[in-house]
Write a structure and sequence with these properties.
Elements lengths: L9 H5 L7 E5 L1 E7 L7 E7 L5 E5 L3 E2 L5 E9 L4 E8 L10 E2 L11 E8 L6 E8 L7 E10 L11 H4 L8 E5 L1 E6 L16 E6 L3 E7 L10 E9 L6 E9 L5 E8 L8 E8 L6 E11 L4 E11 L11 H5 L8 E4 L3 E4 L14 E5 L4 E5 L3 E2 L5 E12 L2 E11 L5 E4 L3 E3 L7 E8 L6 E10 L4 E12 L4 E6 L4 E6 L7 E7 L5 E3 L1 E2 L2 E2 L3 E2 L5 E5 L9 E7 L5 E5 L12 E5 L8 E7 L9 E4 L8 E4 L6 E8 L2 H12 L4 E4 L9 E5 L3 E4 L9 E9 L16 H7 L3 H7 L3 H6 L5
Amino acid sequence: MPIPGNLLSAASETMDPTYSGWRPRTNCTLVAGTGGRAGGTKCLGVRSTAAAGAEAETVTAYPVTAGQTYHAFADAGGSVVERIGIEWLDASYSPVGAVTWSLWTMSAMAGWHRVSTAGVAPVGATRARLVLASAQTASGVSHFWENVYLGQPIRTTGNLMPWSVEATEIDASGWTAEVNATVSRQVPAMSWPVDAYTAGGHTLAMTATAAGNAAVRTTVRPAVTPGAEYLAYAYLQPPVLTATAWIELRWHDAAGNQIGAQRSVLAAPGTGMYRQRASAVAPAGAASCSVAAGLDGAGAGQILRLETVVVTAAPALAPGSVLTQDAATFEQGTGGWAVLSGTATLAQSTPWGAAALEGSYALTATSPSATASTLRSPRVPVTEGVNWRLTTGARATTGTTTSLWLRVRWYDSTGTSLGVSTGTGYAFANTGWYWMSTDAVAPAGAVEASVELTVTAAASASVLHVDGVSLRQVLPLTEVTTAEERGFATLTLRELVVGYTITIERETPDAKRTPVRGAAGLIVDQPITRELLVIEDHEIPMGLPVRYRITMTSPAGLRNTRSSALVTVSLPDRNLAWLKDPGNPQRACRVMVQQAPDWQRPIEQTVHRVRGRRNPVILSGRRGGKEGDLDIWTRTDEEREALHLLLDSGNVLLWQAMPGLGVSDMYVQVAEVTEARTGGTAAEPWRAWSLPLTEVDQPVALGVNGAGGRTWQDVLSEFATYADLLDEYSTLEDLLLDRRRG
């Protein structure tokens, strides 16, 4: 799929099917390369014509807005170092200021690696062109490029930190040295997945000025809420395998004093980039947070590199889980777990990536003898009388684990145990990870609970890994609600199986099934990427009982089906109708119908009159769909403005009326519109509209526009004032969808 928000065309981004969007700039010819990963197997080869630097550029200069920040990146590979630049142009395509270049990569790399830059469009700039440069030292040598992007910075959704901290593409101003360190930027040749769009070329480089501990910290401190859990993470690249590299989430009070911290130490398996997490609940009095990183016992001149630094509200491992991140995923230690009974010992798995289901680490329980041991989690709040589900992943890696029992222990408000649930036992061999679960109802008086896992080892020195632990209230697998004022139904699906595909269909009383629309078009065999899915169905027919059929299919072709309860969405007045844009449901308008169309169904015909024959010979095409004029009223200025917004795009619309009026739901295109006054005074808000409709097919691939998880916190992290928003967005809808000017 194309990179979201890319100003370049798909062909200029991926070089498939051709590289026609590019041309030589300096000392090169262009050739087609192979081995590409973005969109196809092709890539762009920039072949030097002499022993000097070679540059290629985009044929097109893309529109930009002065004062806005633009980000460019590409994946490159070759025998020399390279860089990428943004050339700013005015309306006459003359250069404005200097090219915004990235730093040169620190070393050459034949495999695909990321180069990137960013800059603010200077005053007078109206367009920008991308430049790809390689430092060739011989003629006839090709350097290869693909996966090229130019557009707004691609940020991690939900990051409390501004982009100047998350990435160092412009400078390192979001960071400062804290002890025994200097701060700079470097561009190591680093491989990233082709779709790792938040990973850039520039990294933050902390250099230890002398032997000893060294640390850097962020200069920005976003606001936090006491009692809420937060997660910080970054990619860390230690200088040597034996280095002690860490990331730390810190808490500060309203006066700026540090009142707490949570450090997470990287157990590196090498000297690559490894994502390390730190999570904690903001303590009482916390007003803001910051991130620090460093090396303990660093050698003079040793360098720690950071990439993609994020602080966000900690997501639950499973929707509604009450376990904290550290107790569920063990990314910074054993998460407060303890051995209640038995001889087992607990530790965090090591090194990074050696054992994990979620993240990069797991809890390791080692039994020195063939006995049973019970492991207990920290206590978490629960509600009495509610059914709770405990889920965990586990695997035995040494010896044979004969059984693992999952139980929940309950506590009252004084901390007294109310007993333990019956639980569920599992037997498994050391062949891989297993998912296991058990349900239990919290007894009367229960306010807290802890997870208890009883592992029975069949041999000495047995090792069990545990990861991905959740404890959550059991909610309906399928739930549907209605919002009649806005004309849609909301379908909530829980406990979906990640890795399966899903099809969601709407079933009407005539047993007809129609796929439901999602963000990527009609939901037919789409991959499941998360356990919880919420769909707003804005195309549900009016006044008819509807149920939803959900089919999940495993990679092996096995099917699992479920269905929802019946639900009906109606219009309060049969004289009203909905006009909706399926791709932009926020623009839907409820209007009053003055007169339904008198339909025509056109047909292409050719009449041949044969001499001497009474009747002509007529050749006909297939009769077309319905055409006619829909006459409606808008009754307020707000309705009128909303209808203008709906019609302005020229998109395919959905017309919906109540059943029994001889009109079925219909997808239509609207031609030239007439808006007339209805008489009365000039202040009369009613308008009479005539909408010429042409019936069209339902758009299949059209997805629903949405914020993609974007929240007000994302806006606050990037913009200081409301005035800044006015400079970037034309409407509130543009703000919702993050569609910026230019």
